[in-house]
User: Fold these one by one.
Assistant:
Number 1:
Amino acid sequence: MVYLLFSLSGILFPINPTWYASLKKPSWTPTGKTIGFIWAVLYALIALSLAIVENKVGLKNTSITFMLLWVINYLANQAFSFFEFIAKRLDLAFLDTAIVAITTFLLIFATLQYSVLAAILLIPYLIWAFVATILAWFIYRLNSY
């Protein structure tokens, strides 16, 4: 279920490939297929992390901070596709990725109290969130007129 929820933005806010292709991007920008593969793996790791916490302690037994971080992270994750591809607001897309990175960082520490393995599974998400933030910054700067 978590995997499907994280995949929802791709359905609600589909990529406009023509517009995205027209943007100036740094030479190190991954291809769309690579980004899609990365997210597929990350969504699986995110879902597994949350499933481990659910299995170990039950989500209803976690702290309000833990749940709030998940909700903020999820909403920010989903909002990126809206900002980037629907609103075409590269500045907001950048800010959004920064929120995802920050909340993922905090989420790792909040998850540690429930499961070290579940927290470790979020590290690739954190790495990608920081890479995505840097990429979003470069795309914003290259395309701001």
Number 2:
Amino acid sequence: MSPATAPAGPDLTPAPLDRAAGHALLADLAGPGAAATLGGLDALAPGFPDWIVTSLFGGTYQRPGLALRDRQIANLAALTALGGVEPQLADHVRYSRRIGLTEAEITEVMVHLAPYVGLPKALAGLRVATATFAESTESAKAAESAAGTVTEEAGA
């Protein structure tokens, strides 16, 4: 029997291809901005966002073998190791924060990678993470400021 036709081991299951589950997971990870990003990409490469959502978020992510937290740590490590994919790494830093990883845990992933992927790539990953953390802090401050303005106006 060739490897291509050999049955999967007892612990491996085929990945589903569930478009609705993919969109739901992406919305959980990316928040409300996911649809806008995909819309822009669909205008450039029609059908490509659907493939991404269906095969990745509605397929690979749906497999039972790893928790979402573990998948995100693997994504952070892989994207840092690749290098040159800063926008995707920043997205996955955001996704990791949304599902509960702390800034310290994300930072530790990057530090842990240094002996495996090299210092320059680990430092580049740390730069992306730091910028993404700062962006998140700025957004929170802006939201607090806007809430304060609304409260002041309501009290006036």
Number 3:
Amino acid sequence: MTTIAGDFATTQTKTQTVAAKNSQESLGQAAFLKLMTAQLKFQDPFDPVDNQAMVGQMAQFSQVAGISEMNASLKAIAGGFGTSRLSEAASFIGRSVLQDGDTAHADAEGRYRGEFTVNAPAQNVAVEWLNAAGEVVHTQQLGNVNAGKVPFELISQDDAGNPVDVGALKVRVTGAAPSTMSVWLPVTAVESSSNGAEAMLVTPAGNISAASARRIG
């Protein structure tokens, strides 16, 4: 009996050593089999491990191992999707995307563009362009417009016809009550999101999701 007690104490010591080692590492298949072998070797012959308990331990390990493998596979798939989406979004660089908002930025040609939607025909409609100080720097007369999407554009150039970026310009519509307002934003670069699963477009207005863009032009 004394020998059995000593062996059981040895088993406990080995079990604690393995558990301490695996506190920083996940329990792999080899470590699990080693632990199970030690448990069978040093078990009390007068009180052996119950078969159902052993099967339960094996089933639990298999379940945990399966979940770990599934998580690894999902991470690999997500990484692949992220790389693929980033590669696809790279074609946006140098182009512009239509995004909800009322503040436009100039593209490489000095164009400020956008569109708004009206639900009914309107008369004497105009688009006012405001600078950061809230001052109207230009007014564009559109006249009578039909219900639907109404595009607008302002070209900023010097006397020689070279594009001039005068900074962000806010759009304000008079003579109608737009139900939606969108502006074109030039894309200068592409980055991956924090979770790596989505491509982000770098624009003067900040990073936006490629999926949120209404159109690309």
